[in-house]
Amino acid sequence: MRSRSIFEMDVYIVVATLLLLVIGILFVFSSGVTATGEIANREYLRQILWAVSGLILMFLVTFVDYRLHHRLAPTYFFVVLFLLMATLLFGRVVGGARRWIGVWQAGVQPSEFAKLALILFLARYFGDRKKEVRRVQTFLTGLFWTSLPSFLVLLQPDLGTSLVYLPIFLVIAFFSGAKLMHLGYVTAFFCLAGFFTVVPFWVQHVMERPTAAILILTETRFMRYLLGGVFAALLASSIGLYVTRQRVFFWINYSLSLVMGSIPISYLARTVLRDYQIMRLVVFVNPYVDPQGAGWNIIQSITAVGSGGLFGKGFLRGTQSHYQYLPAQSTDFIFSILAEEWGFIGAAVVFLLFVVIVIRSLYVMVSARDRFSSLVVAGIVAMMVFHFLVNIGMTIGLMPVTGLPLLLLSFGGSSLWTALIGLGIVMSVYQHRYQY
């Protein structure tokens, strides 16, 4: 074991994190300033409190041996599942969703901490099954555990957060050595289910004259015929595979089962999701379908980002935010304010700081001394990258609006603490990288 100082930390991650926190506080402050220069809210003070307390948590977690989390991972996971169920029963309703649990004005979102609990649980699950990881039973069991918090969060309803758990699972499974065929199947399955979920709403609000192919996918009577035909083809292909053992029949089964399974799931999704959530997916393709409703967020955000130009309008000089055109501007659309006031240069700085964190975290993952710690870091990177891509993407119209915050910048204590604790675990792995 090489000697090391207990205060050894990854300076690049620490500095990039501190800079992002400062930038986040600045623009949470900016989001609360009106066009007349008055301070409409004091969210920035709470953000400062959460940032300071989160940094303390990050440094405390850094000096805790990450191997302790290996032992406690199942406990973390089942405690979080209990809290998610308690949230559905007793949680506080904010913005039409029951996501918060706590007393008086203090509360937390268990769905945020569930991300870390799932990362640790899956890292232990796959890390302890090196010889079994390529078996379909092992893969499906991991997917089952992942579906539990995802489904409970979807019931709140919180579509954006419920989607985060899947890429976490896929990345951890990939780096643990799972088959690409299994990973590709799950990815294609959920993409198809999402497509079948949105199509009826797209037809209703966008298409004037639906084609025959679209009607087959939306009309219940036609859908029954489609499912019957797919089932018959699947049965025939299964018989062909059993009799001939030809590989081509396997791939036919592979493809047909995707369609056969994703269509019923899309019906289930339409019963769970609210209409406004599905409309967010529809207006992603064309926000002007509902410019005063579901498309308003995207239109105003694109306007803000585009008006920033190269150098921006200047700090506290944005118009979209200070005239309150941007909804959820301190949370979901914090990047829109930044791009408007600091322009492309400011956005590039934020992008670069996130890249530094991701690259250094990947270095920690590669230099980790055991499978568990390596998979934990992979899961944390997946969480950070997914949040970044979806949040930035939805502010510039490349992703549907799902309500995911930009970690380390957006207003909110639970998401901020989750990101900082996650980075603390990454630096704990870095600290103990020379121990066997």
TrEMBL record:
Cellular localization per UniProt: Membrane
GO molecular function, one term: lipid-linked peptidoglycan transporter activity
Domain of life: Bacteria
Record-level GO cellular component terms: cell division site; plasma membrane
Secretion signal span: none
UniProt membrane topology term: Multi-pass membrane protein
Biological processes per GO annotation: cell division; regulation of cell shape
Keywords assigned: Cell shape, Membrane, Transmembrane, Transmembrane helix
Record-given protein name: Rod shape determining protein RodA
Organism the protein comes from: Alkalispirochaeta americana
